[in-house]
Amino acid sequence: AQKVTQAQTEISVVEKEDVTLDCVYETRDTTYYLFWYKQPPSGELVFLIRRNSFDEQNEISGRYSWNFQKSTSSFNFTITASQVVDSAVYFCALSSEAAGNKLTFGGGTRVLVKP
Amino acid sequence: AAGVIQSPRHLIKEKRETATLKCYPIPRHDTVYWYQQGPGQDPQFLISFYEKMQSDKGSIPDRFSAQQFSDYHSELNMSSLELGDSALYFCASSPTGTAWGLLEQYFGPGTRLTVT
Fold first, then answer.
1. pLDDT tens by residue, A58-101
2. Does A45 contact B at CB distance below 8 Å?
3. Is A105 on the interface with B (CB under 8 A)?
């Protein structure tokens, strides 16, 4: 079975600070996909990034960056220079074709950015 | 760009009533997923459809049923509603994966169901 763990339940920062969200996953599949979604207070789920298990290259996209390390089964996500609008719950998720392509979510990390 | 449409956005029902939630995927997306998110919880997979056929099933109660129609829209039917069914119900759509792997699921705004 697949499992995603987000150990941090809530993080509070002051605007312009960097925020790193931890994500650890478990899967027996050799090919899988990792995602980060954002859920603002309005409730919708917004796709942020996707990574394939066969591509460990870490990238930066605007103020977002991620660190995928297969050796430790981690897929951490960083928001640089946080803004109040970044306040939301962030979910890490895992899927694979072998598991029917459904998303398995972590418990979420609530990020509160104070002005 | 067109997004996933869900209706209604809010629904209030009483115990033992029935409810029907609708989902209209992004055009040319052939796969639909349903998720249930209880208060303070992460979304949990219920059921999925690919090309109008059920492709996978999660922890969906027997009281719930769903289908995907010829125009690819999907409906989640819920009967004998219980208080514990109160949740945010998301529909997500995805195009068929490419040779490079799965593509992301795009979520609708959700239907907030309250059972009283």
1. 777 789 999 999 999 999 999 999 999 999 999 999 998 888 88
2. yes
3. yes
B50-87 tens-digit pLDDT: 888 998 999 899 999 999 999 999 999 999 999 999 99
Distances, alpha carbon A82 to alpha carbons A63, A78, A107, in Å: 8, 9, 22
| Closest CB from A44, A96, A106 relative to B107 | A44
Contact criterion met (CB < 8 Å) for A33 and B42 = no
Q: Are B66 and B85 spatial neighbours (Cβ–Cβ below 8 Å)?
A: no
B28 CA to centre of own chain = 18
The C-alpha of B12 sits at a distance from chain A's nearest C-alpha, in angstroms, of: 17
Q: Give the closest of A43, A47, A107 to B104, CB-based.
A: A47
Q: Give the whole-angstrom CA distance, residue A104 versus residue B44.
A: 7
pLDDT at position A20? 97
Q: Which two tokens stand for residue A2?
A: 């697949």
Quote the strand ranges of chain B, DSSP E.
5-7, 10-13, 19-24, 31-37, 44-50, 53-57, 64-68, 74-78, 87-94, 106-107, 111-115
For chain B, give the longest Cα–Cα distance: 47
What is the spatial distance between Cα A61 and Cα A112, in angstroms, rounded to a whole number?
21
